[in-house]
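SAMPLE LOG
Freezer: B-3
Tube label: C17
Construct: single chain, 300 aa
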Amino acid sequence: MTTTRETTVVARGFTYLEGPRWHEGRLHFVDFYTHTVNALNPDGSIEQIAVVDQQPSGLGWLPDGRMLVVSMKDRKVLRREPDGSLVEHADISALCTGHANDMVVARNGQAYVGNFGFDLMGGGDHEFAAVVLVNTDGTSQIVAEGLSFPNGMVITPDDQTLIVNELFGNRVSAFDIKSDGTLGPRRDFAAYGDLGDEASWHKRVEASTIVPDGLTMDAEGAVWIADCAHQRALRIAEGGEILDEVSTAPNGVFAVALGGDDGRTLFLCVAPDFDEAARTANREAEMHAVQVDVAHAGTP
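STRUCTURE (predicted):
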């Protein structure tokens, strides 16, 4: 049920945008292949916040206001100090079987980080992956296993549940958050059919109803996902009912965030595809925006 709402381009000229987060009145996001962390100011200008040597991905903030950013290819979480320098917050390389990926930082400063699980860009076979918990002191541990490319994540407003997109799993999963930050057993938030142990990620995509990349939550407990293979953002209720749809055709959408002064602006990271060679060589990625009915909730 594609809506008739048209998206508006609010930023353009990037390689591939990811990790959008509304924070302190601005939209923050990363641009993969310029290795930059950026912020969209209220006047429409773009401010470069940081440059990450090994390619940035997920973003979040500690309780004291310092920013955390995932360094994908060396599988680390970096911390931006008050002087603007980036320092190592955690090295999670021993716990990741692929590039480090998206991240959500809880209000207490604990961070949850996904990873690819296999060499996606190099043509590797699909392998299941883990979610890593990074504590405020930089120590880390695996807290969930057996996920199919854990990607966009959000924590519910009561801080009790972590919701995780499984990009090649045809599902969105949920976990109870224990008092120490570790997770209970996986359960379905929304599932559209088990893909089993299929080794080809291409075949997994072909068999999927949703291919959920980025994730954000609203005040009615529904989530917006970036359904990247189907050129649309979907609003999904717990249990799997699709409530709303925004098309980004002919381009794909790879991450979403709710923000704006009233929390009702849905931001969409749009690009022709996610091919590393093509995106590195071009500046075709854009940030789009559209007004929706229900405001943001949860973290981020």
